[in-house]
User: What shape does this take?
Amino acid sequence: MCLAADAVSRLGVGPLATTALLLAAVITRLPYLDVPISADEGGYATAAYWWARGDDLYREITITRPQGIFVIYRLIDALGLGSTVGIHVFAAAWVALAALLLSWAVACLWGRSVGLASAVLFAAVMAMPWLEGYSANAELFMALPLLLGLWALLQADSFRLSDRRALGWLFGSGFAAAVAVLVKPSGLALLAFGALWLARRWRSEQRPPREWLTAEICLLLGWALGILPALLHGVLTVPDRYFDAVLFYRLGQDSIVGGSISHQLTYFATNAFYIVWHVPIFLLVPLGLRLSAHDGNPRARDFLVLWMATAFGGAALGGNWFLHYHQQLLPPVAAATVLAVRHLLRRPLGLPRFAAVCLAVVALLVSLAPIPRAFTASVVVDDLPEWEPGVTAAAPVAAYLATHTGPADTIYVVYDHADIYYLAQRRPAARWLHFRELAGVPGAFDEQVARIADWATAPLYIVEAQAFDRWGFDPHGKLRAVIASNYRLETTIEGLPIYRRLAGLDAGTSGI
Assistant: This one.
């Protein structure tokens, strides 16, 4: 058992270890601070930017995420950190705080050395490209409330289930779970973890059913009260679009429920192999889980197993198994890896132990190898995983558009480069900023073509960031016909053609 003060004291040197951990977490991310923002980052930032300037969230721009991620990006903007570097500096500080919480939580179960080592390993792997930890994505921002809720659960363990202090910590854990869900729906894993952990406590401590039920209600009440403000906001401002954006689209298109099984298995197998190849510490997880059974602490063993299982379930909820989805697995993976290494070093000398230690050392060295290379050579963004070719063109294209348009003009980027909208600070002439939503929502593409064809809503500029027939769009050439009639090619920047609306349309006459 441990309380907040105990968690700090278990770090041994206290403020010194805390400061060193925070600095290490930030320093390892320095080479990636000026990496261009991704389409996901650009979409969140664009929606938050225009929300802060009077738009109704989800109406003019619909991104299928709850409000939490947009609140974070509004905070970034309010702090004056809206530049590319500023966004990544904020993300680096966020990861550092998450690492600190991880060290506290793990120290409560396995001691200060395991806690600190797990946090360092978590921060180091998050700073490398293989899980896209350089990107200020929803998974990164979800980590902090997830770990906060996990830590609150452990604080509740210091008291009997009927104790008011335990109920207070459980309420806080549920609230943290709500914040995690509002950042990314897969944060629901924390609520599942809490409910199952309370059931385990009730069974192991043999408490009356009423105490267990009261504890579960407090956990759920904290979650419900955390969700309520977002629910009220959506219902009161955009009731016709809110639930479709944050729930029904995800369930029908991008979830373990709505996606095809073959698609999910293919993505899981492909990306799991990629991650294990580049970050082989994942291979040590089964060893860590197996060896944790021998430390004489069934509570800690059950915690780790349940943590890993619910984190896996959370990562699976999205159905697509993108590389950054695996970030949710990293905190328990880091703890399991450190436990595996610790147990290997404690086992009697012999060939099996020597081979296992060699495996662990090689896995750690390969996993952490990119860190020193990142400080001795510039980061080549085209080599980073899941980056669109031409991503480096976003900044010069955005600068050109900002120079040649006015604040009231709109632009359209074909189809999936929302970073250009944000960098140019020009309103999108599009409701959907991501190709998956544009393809997955019935009628969305035809609606977009109609907007471009109508002189009243046609953008001043169109950027061909992807080919017009990419992802099966525009099979009959309707969009291309509109652009051929109403637009002219004005320039090409780093391979991206930029089209300007014809002068006749500026005067209010259609060229179709």
Strands lie at 410-414, 427-428, 461-464, 487-493, 496-501. The chain has a mean pLDDT of 88.
